[in-house]
Amino acid sequence: MKKITLLLILLGTFQLTIAQDRATEIRNQLMNRDESSVLVVAHRGDWRNAPENSLAAIENAIQMGVDIVEIDLQRILDGALIVMHDSRLDRTTTGQGKIAEWPLDSIRTLRLKNGCNIRTKHTVSTLEEAMLLCKGRILVNLDKAYDYFDEVYRILEQTGTTHQVIMKGSKPVEEVEKEFGNYLDKVIYMPVVNLDKEEASVQVQNFARTLNPVAYELVFADPANPLPLELAAALKGKSLIWYNTLWDTLAGGYGDDLALEDPDKSYGYLIRTLGARIIQTDRPAYLIKYLRSKNLHK
User: Fold this and answer.
1) Is the dihedral of CA 152, 162, 128, 23 positive or negative?
2) Contact residues for 173 (Cβ-Cβ < 8 A; gap 6+)
3) How do the residues of the chain divide into helix, strand and coil, expressed in percent and rounded to 5?
4) How far apart are CA 79 and CA 268, in angstroms?
5) What angle do CA 167, 170, 172 make, to 5 degrees?
6) Which residues of 116-144 are buried (b: 16+ CB within 10 A; e: fewer)?
7) What is the pLDDT of residues 257-297, one digit of tens each?
8) Above 50 in pLDDT, residue 10?
9) What pTM did the predictor assign?
10) DSSP 159
């Protein structure tokens, strides 16, 4: 009996070690600018099968093999940081009103709604709870966290997850260095560049010269824009390229809707022609299945 118990303990330790190595592997893939596969980002977690930004949505994403989960933060009345997109409670919870007017103990009494606006058993989570769930298992893109990142970082230190976080933003490099400079050697920062704007090329050059980002999120609505093709060549071997396929105006029409008709025309085009090596999607399971059919997901 003791031998069986010991074996179970050893097996559990081994499985935990494997899970904890996963986040490091993904981070290393990013830092090494590895172009041999494509990283999958789940927008607000697996929100089609669990409430958006819930612990269940995050866990689902981890279980299906997602590499990065994108979650949103809000600061509430007592200063606590919770995982939620909207500034109001009405759409995603059974509560009403502005989040900033609710303390955590009251927020805890609410239930999250699913994508059909139906009450579920799930409750609102804090940033700390979300990061502990993700610890060692997946990278995390924190959205809406820029304005109070000092507070965010304290929680990341407490949970031992500073190395798992990706921050993104569209501000010029000078502002990023000034406002976010204390953390640029601690967390991964990726500039967001709208390629339909006149200053897009200059913005990419400024970041490349100053911060040498591990990746850029590129956005464009106009399919005739020549910059996506130009940057696919210019950034190759230097920085990875992130595209969002949540809706068509984020990636020149090559979004999730088109992918449902023909993934080669959407995901395939972004990967083969525009150099995408990170794709954020509202259909992570569908994207992973496609990538694995092409041997493009580890």
Assistant:
1) positive
2) 191, 203, 206, 207, 210, 211
3) 45, 20, 35
4) 43
5) 110
6) eeeebebbbbbbbbbbbbbbbbbbbbbbb
7) 999 999 999 999 999 999 999 999 999 999 999 999 999 99
8) no
9) 0.93
10) H
What residue has token string 């407490």? Answer: 158
d(CA 230, CA 216): 14
List beta partners, residue 190. Answer: 168
Mean pLDDT of the residues in the chain: 94
208: buried, middle or exposed (CB in 10 Å: 19+, 13-18, 0-12)? middle
Residue with structure tokens 């929100």?
47
Structure tokens at 113: 């709604």
Reported as a pLDDT band with limits 50, 70 and 90, residue 5 is very low
Which amino acid would we find at residue 116?
Answer: C
d(C-alpha 136, C-alpha 125), whole Å: 19
CA pair distance 77, 102, nearest whole angstrom: 5
Tokens coding 116: 């059909």
